[in-house]
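Tip: read the tokens left to right.
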């Protein structure tokens, strides 16, 4: 039974061609339930059909955006079907294929190339014992009075601006240069030629971060966790200029950029981070930023269950690799949901 117990969600808008991936996957895994979707509503309808069958693992084929769409759709469907009944808020096991642009979750979990991943999934039913799964908390990004968006990282500043500039650069690229523009080099080029000049002209915004949780931890110069004495609900964690600020439960931002190297240190808490150096200082720090070097001048870390970010001017918000409209204030908190994600390294 090749693919028995598997449900595979294929993003029709994925970078590497959704329909072709769906055909290739179904051919190798004929007993898997493969679904090609374009919208979140289509994902929700599909999940309502398959969840009663209790699949062993639901796989997202399309990168971080597809994985985050799956997570949000699962939470919506399970909440609706539970009707307020108590439960443990642990999502069904999911897997992430390395088919997106940044591939943060896929890289952290050691996902191999597509062909090898499909072979591993094909032989899944022959494994003995439980599936190797990594536990991740989720960031819930406040939604102006409505339900928040679940993600593994979110932020404002350079990350959101670089993402917007990268996508604009990609849209304008034609022919062979488009291959370059889709790579990590295209990402860096967008940062250096578009985002950095704009940030120099506009200057850094002012940021106020208020703790909305209870106790707060930080990281000392040796990387050890340390409780922040006296911190409580309402304590100001940061009041100053910023270049990048956000929160995460996943150490990577994509492209193997370890933007939040401590994010998995405290399950049940967010790693809130601020980088406050100037544009020139940030460019000089790129190699150390990319590898998650610590300590790093201008970098500040906290762990809390919730925080409010208030900016001096409207800032675009980046959530799990997708850009969202600018706002002056945003709340980020640990979601009640916990994700269990297939650990490809352990599978291999």
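Filled-in amino acids:
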């Amino acid at each position: 039974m090749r693919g028995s117990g598997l449900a595979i969600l294929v993003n029709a808008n994925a970078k590497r061609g959704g329909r072709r991936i769906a055909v290739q996957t179904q051919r190798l895994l004929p007993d898997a339930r493969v679904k090609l979707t374009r919208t979140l509503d289509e994902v929700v309808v599909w999940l309502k059909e398959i969840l009663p069958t209790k699949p062993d693992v639901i796989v997202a084929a399309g990168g971080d955006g597809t994985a985050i769409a799956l997570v949000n759709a699962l939470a919506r469907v399970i909440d609706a079907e539970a009707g307020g009944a108590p439960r443990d808020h642990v999502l069904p096991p999911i897997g992430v294929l390395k088919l997106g642009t940044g591939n943060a979750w896929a890289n952290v979990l050691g996902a191999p190339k597509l062909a090898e991943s499909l072979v591993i999934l094909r032989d899944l039913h022959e494994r003995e014992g439980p599936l190797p799964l990594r536990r991740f908390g989720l960031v819930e990004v406040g939604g102006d009075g409505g339900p928040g968006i679940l993600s593994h990282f979110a932020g404002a500043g350079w990350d959101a601006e670089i993402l917007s500039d990268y996508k604009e650069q990609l849209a304008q690229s034609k022919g062979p240069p488009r291959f370059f523009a889709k790579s990590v080099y295209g990402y860096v080029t967008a940062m250096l030629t578009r985002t950095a000049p704009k940030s120099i002209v506009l200057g850094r915004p002012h940021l106020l971060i208020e703790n909305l949780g209870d106790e707060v931890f930080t990281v000392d110069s040796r990387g050890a966790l340390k409780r922040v004495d006296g911190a409580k609900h309402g304590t100001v964690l940061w009041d100053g200029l910023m270049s990048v600020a956000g929160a995460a439960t996943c150490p990577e931002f994509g492209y193997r950029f370890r933007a939040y190297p401590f994010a998995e240190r405290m399950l049940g808490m967010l790693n809130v981070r601020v980088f406050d150096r100037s544009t020139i200082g940030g460019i000089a720090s790129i190699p150390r930023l990319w590898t998650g070097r610590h300590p790093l001048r201008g970098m500040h870390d906290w762990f809390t269950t919730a925080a409010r970010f208030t900016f001096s001017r409207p800032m675009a918000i980046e959530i799990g690799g997708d850009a969202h409209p600018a706002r002056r204030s945003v709340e980020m908190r640990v979601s009640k949901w916990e994700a269990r994600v297939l650990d490809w390294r352990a599978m291999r």
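The domain at 6-131 is CATH 3.40.50.10330 (Rossmann fold). The chain has a mean pLDDT of 89.
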